Amino acid sequence: MEIAFVLEKFILVTIIFAISLVIAMYSTYAERKVAAFLQDRLGPDRAGPFGILQPLADGVKMFMKEEIVPTNSNKWLFMVGPGLAMLTACIGTAVIPWGTAIQIGERVIPLQVTDINVGLLYIFGVVSLGVYGVMIGGWASNNKYSLLSAIRAASQNISYEIAMGLSIIALLLVSGTLSLKEIVEQQHGWHWNVIYQPIGFILFLICAFAETNRAPFDLPECETELIGGYHTEYSSMKLGFYLFAEYINMFVSSAVIASLYFGGYNYPGMDWVLQHTGTTIGPLIGTLVFFIKIFAFIFFFMWVRWTIPRFRYDQLMHLGWKVLIPLAIANIIVTGVVIAIIEKF
């Protein structure tokens, strides 16, 4: 029985890891196609039909490029940085519920690696660790532009993590739990948290853009000021790891947003579908719905990148400290007052 449990978890982890890599790989293709669509261009159209093999061509190019380590860099940390960025990006998927449990024969298999009662705290812990890969890479490069980029990334992450954490407190007042699984299950049908916490959702979404270093918060990678940012000195697959980590972070952020505010794998009429499709196909339909929501948010990330210009750094810090944090505190107070009034009457 224990061997079967370990085997189930190993297969689930392998599948989630593979899906994360494939989505990250084809997000690069989607990014180019979305940019092309918004700019009235074609985008990649040479490698395969409609350019569908472009990510594979890019991957081969990354593997084949020469591996360069700057002479004056801290060589061990220079190599550790990209790996740490990739690791912290991937481990965030462990607590995300991808669907209800499926039944195969007599075994009931939950579509979640682990359901811990502090799942949200785990996510925040992983997010706070993610900046270490950027910091180590920027510092170890011994390049002033990379170091400045790493400092920017660290201060940006610290500033926006506060607002993100405060936005979640109001959600916790509504849900009463830190478990992602329980939060998703509470949003059955149309009872999505975005209806009860619209301000919290907007705050969390803005902070997610800043935490993933996506435009208009991509100051750590500002080409006009910092050449390439923290990965200026990187080449080959070390650079590829940094780029992959960014897209995996975007995927995980979209999954967390969909879980917290848009019901995760829940959808209207889910009970009827489960009743008529059984305990194997039914949960997989919920998982498909969940991924549709994730892809919608990934598209939104890309849409914003090619629509809104980059902030100046002083504007970014002003927004984080003087706008988002006070709004998040006000949202907590209003939510607490409303809940107290509802409980009293």
Automatic annotation (TrEMBL):
Origin: domain of life: Bacteria
Task of the protein: NDH-1 shuttles electrons from NADH, via FMN and iron-sulfur (Fe-S) centers, to quinones in the respiratory chain. The immediate electron acceptor for the enzyme in this species is believed to be ubiquinone. Couples the redox reaction to proton translocation (for every two electrons transferred, four hydrogen ions are translocated across the cytoplasmic membrane), and thus conserves the redox energy in a proton gradient. This subunit may bind ubiquinone.
Database matches in InterPro entries: NADH_UbQ_OxRdtase_su1/FPO (IPR001694), NADH_UbQ_OxRdtase_su1_CS (IPR018086)
Membrane topology, as annotated: Multi-pass membrane protein
Primary location class: membrane
The protein's name: NADH-quinone oxidoreductase subunit H
Family: Belongs to the complex I subunit 1 family.
Keywords: Cell membrane, Membrane, NAD, Quinone, Translocase, Transmembrane, Transmembrane helix, Ubiquinone
Residue ranges crossing the lipid bilayer per the database entry: 7-27, 76-99, 119-140, 160-178, 190-210, 239-261, 281-303, 323-342
Species per Swiss-Prot/TrEMBL record: Pedobacter quisquiliarum
Pfam families in the record: NADHdh (PF00146)
Keyword NAD: yes
Its EC number(s): 7.1.1.-
Any GO BP annotation: aerobic respiration
Localization (cell): Cell membrane; Membrane
Catalytic activity: a quinone + NADH + 5 H(+)(in) = a quinol + NAD(+) + 4 H(+)(out)
Quaternary structure and partners: NDH-1 is composed of 14 different subunits. Subunits NuoA, H, J, K, L, M, N constitute the membrane sector of the complex.
Molecular function terms, GO-annotated: NADH dehydrogenase activity; oxidoreductase activity, acting on NAD(P)H, quinone or similar compound as acceptor; quinone binding
NCBIfam families: PRK06076.1-2
GO cellular component: plasma membrane
Keyword rRNA-binding among UniProt keywords: no
